[in-house]
Design goal:
The protein has 357 residues and is of the alpha/beta class. It contains eleven helices and 13 strands. Helix 1 crosses helix 7. The radius of gyration is 20 Å and the shape is globular. 45% of the residues are buried. Bound molecules: the ligand NCc1[nH]cc(CCC(=O)O)c1CC(=O)O.
Length: 357
Amino acid sequence: MPSTVRIGTRASTLALTQTGHVADALARLGGFDVEIVHVRTEGDRLTGSLATLGGTGVFVTALRDALLDDRCDVAVHSLKDLPTGPAEGLVLGAVPPREDPRDVLCAREGWTLTTLPPGARVGTGSPRRAAQLRAARPDLDVVDIRGNVDTRLRRVAPGDLDAVVLARAGLARLGRLDAVTQELDPAVMTSAAGQGALAVEVRAGVTDPQLAAALAALDDPASRLAVAAERALLGHLEAGCAAPVGALARLDAAPTDDPAAADSRLDGAPGHVLTLDAVVVRTDGSQQLRRSARTALAPEQPTVDSVTDVPADPRGTGRLVGHVDPERHAAAETLGRTLAEELLDAGAAGLAELGPR
Ligand SMILES: NCc1[nH]cc(CCC(=O)O)c1CC(=O)O
């Protein structure tokens, strides 16, 4: 008798689309029925600027409450919206393969960041994007906007905005890549920690073996390691999702002298190199700190193969735990903290007014 797995989601089109993909994948992998549960969140209700909503995780709390109250079994979040702090009683059951994490420009007249006319009005609600826009093009008039992806795209029109900056991943999931006029170079516009990745959150100690197996199959260790490094950096800087901080990590096969081994795919390759690029920008764009670091990761030791084995975040650090080899996961987090420390030494805290809220 197959059980029904209840999947909680926000009601926005993007959230529904993302949840739909995850629900389909879990149902297929686990051989159970799924039911979509709509959860209203504070972030959908409030209309103030994202920068003034206060604190992190406005989109997340209601979904987490629904999980903890047993109104759903699985919650799907955009990973970049997840606070880096503790989530007692919950674990990250899966990070599905990440989409292209880059930000994109959606402009009138096919404009790019270079060809936008002087003084062009560019909309974004993100201090990270605003600051990097100002750093790249001090002449731009950056306009604070809010609303879902469609609302923002509609504002690109004569007499209103000349362009908006959005996550490519969101547009891809909504089938709106037609609106993109430029994929922004991460060296100029570094994306947010976790951007383009989804978080599939469950209660700690999942007991349903079908759900546990489906989560394990959906999980992508390379994506999980990358976001672990990015989030450790953000957490160590005590920067929330509204801070002018970008972080992007990638996992590559370790360089080798053996040409045959150089071809080996990432999964099962002898070892990897995790590279993390980060930026902290002054809100007015007048100064930015860009730093990179990398670390070698030993070959994977698959010791944890099911979320049922994962304790409920015992240290209460809000770490992403799950299917990844704990040693590789710890190394990814160390990379993030080390780079954060380097940025703090270079004056990041004063630059971006980081610190506890
Ligand atoms: N903060 C809103 C949000 N959360 C996740 C995405 C896009 C999808 C993603 O990054 O995974 C967006 C919209 C945007 O930034 O354009």
